Amino acid sequence: MENLFDNLKSRGFIEQVTDEETVRRLLSTPIVCYIGFDPTATTLHVGSLVPIMALMHFQKAGHTPVVLIGGGTGLIGDPSGKTKTREILTKSQVEENARALKKQFSRYLDFSEDRGLLLNNAEWLIPLGYIDFLRDIGCHFSVNRMLAAESYKMRLKTGLNFIEFNYMLLQAYDFFYLHKHHRCLLQMGGNDQWGNIVAGIDLIRRIEGVEAEGITFPLIITASGSKMGKTEEGAVWLEEKLTSPYEYYQFWINVDDADVGRFLKLFTFLPLEEIAIVQKMEGEELNSAKGVLAFEATKITHGEEKALEAWKTSVSAFGYREIDRRLFPSSTIARGEIGDDLGGMPSSFLERGVLERGIAAFELFSLVGMCVSRSEARRLISQGGGYINGEPVLTYDEIIGFKHVKNGSIIVRSGKKKHLRIVIK
């Protein structure tokens, strides 16, 4: 049976590890592991999926994952990876965000019967007596070593306030607390958390005389050079009120060809031997692989029913070919004929009389909200970014009329990812 560490490494999750052989041996039996998430908003975005997927892999392998909501540390703000001080949130804001994130994590992990733990470090950080904390915990930290940490070194040039300087102590204390009360032996996080993780390991060794371990994940940069989860339209959120299941599906199906295999490894649970064939794919086969990626990723976040609806909508609107199940037999995507189902696509309504008179394409794009102004719509279409029913609009003043209506609607698209169904009233 393959060790979980080897599986994660093969899938691209591992950036740094304290001791590879020790961690591999540690994961041969069930352990408790944790990842912290600061509640800076009421929802996470796609950029947080790597640590979430890692915790799901741990739970599937029989380990106990701990999601630690930083209700206490969130009152300070993590300086790691930041060139300036984070905005300080109020206690009520942090509490509201923490409640929302707890609900969101329950979609990914099973917290019943202690299969996983969802904790908030406000429970033990806020009651800490400051003097006692400095005496019992602060004495184990070397200021020289702290200043050598990459997260602090980067900020010394732009300014690091004293509150932020304390963050490493608090996160190290989290690891110590989870080890003492829940026998947690492994902390994971983004690569910018390496210094904080090592500080926690050192604290556990100094106080408890026990060796704990750490793993960091790589920062995911797309083939186009952008940070994972960032698009021209903004962040891709995990909350469907901000990013609908259909829009979420479109994000994944429009990834760069060069990212398909890597993202199938990171963001689905399909076997690696099935994903390996993607390297040899091109053309329609690669589009089929994108469909599998989009469906499986959407299923994990929004459930199979909404993923299937998004898939059917895409097939009906844009003619994507059905998934070749022979290529990915482990995918749960449904078989069968796809009917005309556009229910999952964002919609706008247009009066019948507008099409009876005919309307210039750039005016239509502005009228239905695809562009904020007519001038922006002209630029979009002139640069080849405007589409009607999947076909490029050749001139910005092309007249759109009833000949463009299919099944009672017109599908307009801006660029690769922004789609809208115009329903004729």
> Please, what is the oligomeric state?
single chain
N-to-C span: 59 Å
The number of helical runs is: 19
Highest-level CATH class of the largest domain:
Alpha Beta
CATH topology of the largest domain: Rossmann fold
CATH architecture of the largest domain: 3-Layer(aba) Sandwich
Give the tally of structural domains. Answer: 3
* Share of residues in helices: 40-55%
Topology:
Elements: H1 4-11, E1 16-17, H2 20-26, E2 32-37, H3 49-60, E3 64-69, H4 91-105, E4 117-120, H5 122-125, H6 130-136, H7 143-148, H8 150-156, H9 162-165, H10 167-182, E5 184-190, H11 194-208, E6 213-217, E7 230-231, E8 234-235, H12 245-253, H13 260-267, H14 272-275, H15 284-302, H16 304-318, E9 347-350, H17 352-357, E10 359-360, H18 361-367, H19 374-382, E11 386-388, E12 391-392, E13 399-400, E14 409-414, E15 418-424
Parallel strand pairs: 2-3, 2-5, 3-4, 5-6, 9-15
Antiparallel strand pairs: 1-6, 7-8, 10-13, 11-12, 11-14, 14-15
Helix pairs in contact: 10-11, 12-15, 12-16, 13-15, 15-16, 18-19
